Amino acid sequence: MSDVTAPATTASREARVHLQTYARQPLTLVSGRGCWVTDDEGRDYLDLVAGIAVNVLGHAHPAVAEAVSRQASTLVQVSNLYFTLPQIELAEALVARSPFDRAFFTNSGTEANEAAIKLARRHGRERGAHEIVSLTGSFHGRTLGSLAATGQPKYQAPFAPLPAGFRHVPPNDIEALTDAVTDATCAVILEPIMGEGGVHPLRDEYLAAAREACDRVGALLVLDEIQTGMGRTGTFFAFEPSGVVPDAVTLAKGLAGGIPIGALLVREAAAAFQVGDHGTTLGGNPLSCAAALATLRVLDEEDLAGNARARGAELVAALQPLVGAGVLAEVRGRGLMLGLETREPIARAAVAEARELGLLVNATGDTTLRLVPPLVITSDEVGIAADRVGHALERAGAAT
Ligand SMILES: Cc1ncc(COP(=O)(O)O)c(C=O)c1O
Fold first, then answer.
1. Do the domains spanning 11-60+303-399 and 63-301 agree at the CATH topology level?
2. What is the pLDDT of residues 24-83, one digit of tens each?
3. Cα separations (Å) of 231 from 101, 109, 298?
4. Is 118 part of the annotated catalytic residue set?
5. Which of 22, 196, 282, 362 has most ligand 1 atoms within 8 Å of CB, for mutation?
6. What is the pLDDT of residue 6?
7. Pseudo-torsion of CA 15, 18, 19, 23, nearest 10°?
8. Annotated catalytic, 104?
């Protein structure tokens, strides 16, 4: 009898037809609810990745599902040749809750940063200023402008030469930043907490020094809050506790609860774009804006920034024994954006062990685990998370 051909696995099907750019976990996820996702074999996982800091309301939140389904059966896309009400309402909602006066919507984070880079160039043009200063270890996206701002050679090297006019300085080094900002600088772009680079917060004094350096030369201070925004760090924007107010901010990830969107928010004095300077076909479409409006409403109604503070503090407290026991060197970050620094290079092994234990976490490097759960996480789920993180680290440590 001839062999029956085994059915192709999900991984082998993908390998045949998708460009091989992702190092995916061996896991096919088919559904989710709240902080939990389910794979194609029916196993449940507590999700501390949340679509990489995206699903602020968790999975399948009824408010987002209802807003998307209502808008999808009304009007999805007409382009920016016309006015649409969800886009105006979203801009109004974001302006009302922030020091910014105007919004521009995109489809992703990297596009929001591209818009910020172009805006800064446009703003600096009269002074002949075009240089952008950003940080080594930063991450601003994969399109060429955002990639040039990203301070990580591993992402940049294969695509050289990148657009010119970008300078990188080490984070939290006030002197290096002050020296780098000159009359040629049109903007400084910073993540208040560097996410992809390993969850490294910038000090308040550093943000204040960046504000001062920008003011000295007339450059824009742009904060990339694509990962830190939407209440994740315990306030709507991570910059709020610092008292520093930027000229512009970029948002994406959680803004529409998982539906693709990005936003550039700017103060009036920085709103340098003229008609025709920038545009996008799908950015700010009614569907994504309706999802964002629903997300913002739930964020407020359920005080999810407050929950990020409270549950974040519980999670840090529950993880402290691992620092005491010497497995972890440090737990850093704010709210529900935490980085766990391991003493040994076991972070990637711990991700695999955690998966076996029914927990999704991700590693930003060999010694850093990143925890960015949905902001709706409960105290009970924090307890389960801490317990499984501990076991995963223990098993990963034992295997080395
Ligand atoms: C701080 C920051 N900026 C920009 C981006 C890029 O966003 P996107 O992947 O939506 O293009 C990311 C994504 O991880 C990010 O964390």
1. no
2. 999 999 999 999 999 999 999 999 999 999 999 999 999 999 999 999 999 999 999 999
3. 20, 17, 12
4. no
5. 196
6. 63
7. -60
8. no
State the pairing for strand pair 200-201/220-224: unpaired
> What is the β-pairing status of strands 29-33 and 36-39?
antiparallel
Whether the per-residue pLDDT at 8 is higher than 80: the answer is no
Helix, strand or coil, per DSSP, at residue 368: strand
CA atoms within 13 A of residue 33's CA, in its CB half-sphere: 2
Among candidate residues 100, 104, 105, 139, the one labeled active-site is: 139
Ramachandran class of 284: left when φ > 0, alpha when ψ lies in -120 to 50, beta otherwise: left
- Helix then strand then coil, in percent of the chain rounded to 5, is 40, 20, 40
Please indicate whether residue 108, judged by its CB atom, sits closer than 6 Å to ligand 1: yes
| Residue nearest ligand 1's atom 9 by CA | 109
Yes or no: is domain 11-60+303-399 CATH 2.60.40.3760?
no
Please report, for the chain, the start and end positions of each structural domain, with discontinuous segments joined by +: 11-60+303-399, 63-301
Question: 380 catalytic, yes or no?
Answer: no
**Cut 0.85: pTM above it:** yes
In angstroms, the Cα distances linking 55 to 49, 58, 208, 291 are: 9, 5, 31, 12
Phi and psi at residue 318, in whole multiples of 5°?
-70, -25
Structural class in CATH, domain 63-301: alpha beta
